[in-house]
Specification:
The complex is a heterodimer. Chain A is mainly α. Chain A has one domain. Chain A has helices at residues 2-14, 20-40, 51-81, 93-117, 129-145, 151-167, 170-175, 188-219, and one strand spanning 84-85. By secondary structure, chain B is of the alpha+beta class. Classes of the chains: A mainly alpha, B alpha+beta.
């Protein structure tokens, strides 16, 4: 019965067979990194700090990811390895609960590390962002890497980057955001760590997605137009 | 005949065949998929796949829709409600029996 359960998992893993899932995720993270960088490097009254710009940014980014993925799937993936229409989710609650639980675990870990081992004040682990990175690496390993062996290297890179960023001195990470307090209550070290993390993850996922896409193109051919 | 043996005897033989079990398991996880996708995942040849799908269609477990993607013919397959129920029951019976 384990094999049957594994078979039932395959359509979910199929979504990223061409690397489109990672390309979309990488693009999204880099878009957020770019927005944060623009906010950091612009005065407090600049357009980049307006809430409506954030929504517009998310809308545009979402549209590019949605229509871009759809175009790749329609013109490249479906003619080569077939079409799948996924089930509409009956409820958003499972995903919402998973997200909130992951975030709580990450924040809890951050507080535990800070209070029990005193790491934070001198090593720059003043933000849960790096630990959220470890949760992200675990989620990536579960969602993507278990189906493709070489993706474990990507999961490992994400985890190593998270730890490395956590070990960076707070003033070094904070210097990335300059002297501006663009994020109000958030410390410059936290903002800098966040910017560094989403940029790195974006680049890693984009590279992994491109490699997957090239490998997919190399190993598949459009199906012959014959009767089924 | 003990209870476990009786449970095994009640197992749906249409679904129990390994090739068809793969197809039903794949289709149970999606809304619908095309012939090419099933061929890609199961690595069956067209003849074998067609034969299994015909048996599942005859049993009322799979609905087949012939359509076109642009100018290319496309065969879409989805599990019917009966098919989903039969697969759920099959999995429950197998778990009980094993």
């Amino acid at each position: 019965m384990d094999q049957v359960e594994r078979m039932m998992e395959r359509p979910k893993l199929y979504y990223n067979i061409d690397g489109v899932g990672e390309l979309g995720m990488g693009f999204m993270l880099l878009c957020f990194a770019l927005l944060e960088w623009l906010q950091i490097n612009s005065p407090a009254g600049a357009i980049w700090h307006r809430v409506y710009v954030l929504f517009l940014w998310i809308g545009l980014m979402g549209a590019v990811i949605h229509y871009g993925s759809e175009a790749i799937k329609r013109h490249i993936t479906y003619p080569r390895t077939g079409f799948v229409e996924y089930k509409k989710r009956n409820s958003i609650w499972p995903a919402a609960i998973a997200f909130v639980t992951s975030a709580l675990v990450a924040v809890g870990l951050a507080f535990a590390v800070r209070s029990h081992w005193g790491i934070g004040s001198h090593m720059g682990l003043t933000t849960p962002a790096a630990l959220i990175g470890l949760v992200f690496a675990a989620a990536y390993a579960y969602g993507v890497a278990r189906s493709v062996r070489w993706k474990w290297a990507v999961a490992g890179t994400i985890a190593i980057c998270s730890v490395a960023i956590a070990m960076l001195p707070a003033d070094l990470v904070g210097s990335m955001t300059g002297s501006t307090s663009a994020f109000g209550a958030i410390s410059s070290a936290s903002a800098g760590a966040w910017l560094l993390i989403i940029t790195l993850y974006g680049v890693i996922l984009l590279i992994s997605g491109v490699i997957s896409f090239v490998l997919y193109l190399r190993h598949t051919q459009p199906a012959a137009e014959t009767a089924e | 005949m003990n209870l476990k043996t009786r449970k095994l005897a009640e197992i749906d033989r249409v679904i129990h065949e390994p090739g068809r079990l793969m197809l039903v398991a794949l289709l149970s996880a999606v809304e619908q998929a095309d012939f090419l996708y099933l061929q890609h995942e199961t690595e069956m040849n067209k003849g074998t796949l067609s034969s299994h799908l015909s048996k599942l269609e005859e049993a009322g477990y799979v609905e087949v829709t012939k359509t076109y993607r642009g100018k290319i013919p496309q065969t879409l397959l989805r599990l019917t409600i009966e098919g989903r129920q039969a697969f759920t029951q099959y999995r429950r019976r197998m778990k009980e029996a094993l």
